[in-house]
Amino acid sequence: MNKLLISHRGNLRGPNPDFENNPNDSDNNAFYLGHDFNQYKVDYSWLENFSEKLWIHCKDFDSLDYLCKSSSELNYFWHENDSFTITSRGYIWTYPGSNFYGSKSINVNLAKEVKKQNYYGICSDYIENLIISKT
Predict the structure, then answer these.
(1) What is the pTM of this model?
(2) Tell me, what's the pLDDT at 29?
């Protein structure tokens, strides 16, 4: 079975802080992309346009609250150091390095190689060169 592959921070070949989360197209309003701080301003409509491809990690309560109140179909979640959390679409998002696997879980693994397990998808900085081993 093929696993869903999600690029962590938009990375394909490893961490690249200068270009992470860069939408290459910014509009004006109150949402920002970035991992550790606000980097790229985007409009809510930009999020909606890419809603089928985005896994939105809300970084503060106001963002989470706004998305919860909207009639949005966006896939979003919030967590800090929790072992896992649930996304708005019912997926289990795991904390990097945690060992929780399930048919609807996204394994956040920032390494270049991951073990074949029972999970729905993988989020990694190395999506383009990711090795999924059988053991």
Answers:
(1) 0.73
(2) 45
